[in-house]
Specification:
Order of helices and strands: HEHEEHEHHHEHEHEEHEEHEEHE
Distance between the termini: 31 Å
CATH topology of the largest domain: Cytidine Deaminase, domain 2
Strand content: 15-25%
Number of domains: 2
Structural class: alpha/beta
CATH superfamily of the largest domain: LpxI C-terminal catalytic domain
CATH class of the largest domain: Alpha Beta
CATH architecture of the largest domain: 3-Layer(aba) Sandwich
Strand order of the largest sheet: 6-13-11-9-7-8
Shape: elongated
Radius of gyration: 20 Å
Number of helices: 11
Length: 296
Amino acid sequence: MAGAATEGRPAAADGGAARRPLAIVAGGGRLPSEVAEAARRAGREVIVFRIAEKADAPRDGLEAHTLHFGQLGRLFDMLAARDCHDLAFVGSIRRRPDYRAIAGDLATLKRLPKIMRALVGGDDTVIRKVLKLFEAEGFRVLPIAEIAPDLLAGEGSLGRCRVAAGEDADIRRGLDLLAATSAFDIGQAAVVVANRVVAVEAAEGTDAMLARVATLRQEGRVRGPKRRGVLVKTAKRGQDLRTDLPVIGAETARLAAAADLAGIAVEAGRTLIAERAATIAAADRSGLFLAGVTAP
């Protein structure tokens, strides 16, 4: 259970939690630095633990340490030494770690059977197991929405462009599709053009799916007028939002424009917008609408 006292690590009392450091376990992208800075503005000391070969360099002024996948035990020990009980997982990890890279230090070896069990299953299953692994050590995993609520998409149009009537129908179809596929742990996004589902996100991720749609357009396999179609992105039903919130950024807007879409619709309150100003500006420059919508 989150916050339980385990292996000599007493759980943080609620009254002292805000005075203790917050750990950010950082994957790729600029989002970890944005979340860390939001936490610092709220008055918390922040320590960034970069996953080697995955995380971008943190912004100036942030304390940062680099660890490999095989040093999970060292991470636990470093957190305990700093009296750090709260942490958040932020950023992308494109590939799962190589099993051969797990056994990195003595503290990790002691926990190796639990770690190996946590890496078996679909994406959602693995995430839940990893969270339980940290909770069993006495740590509390915080949702990004609690640390940096300003990074979440709000309801309605977020940029200058507005949603047209036909595009609204495409959004609804995309939302219905993603609600129906949630149980299968497939992906968080789909592209709908003129009421036709032309792509569903799978293991390749949203960016690669958009590149695929651009190729289909060039090959003439997606018919219809130019600047038609919508990227729809939502959280999966029952998804643990502490670690796997949907994210879009300026690159998403660029790829949506290259795929000749009309806009992007994301689930309001449950989707992160990385580098918000740059992302909205990229959508505006391309004539894309960017809207927060309510999922069914």
